Amino acid sequence: MIKNADNLDNASELAMLEASIQEKFIRQKAAKIEKGLSGECIECGEFNQRLISGICSPCRDFRAKTGHR
Fold it and tell me: What is the pTM of this model?
């Protein structure tokens, strides 16, 4: 906390600290996301700009919802 600061200054400082912590967390999570490649999905055969392990996002979402692997 800032010496000789009022409540608004302290709240502002805490908000900035929290935002910084959240940004760091998000960047760490984002760094773990696979980059992906464009191409034809091995599940549906449609062209997609971002395949992960050869599978497009709609097919990955379907697998997640239905429990298929």
Answer: 0.54
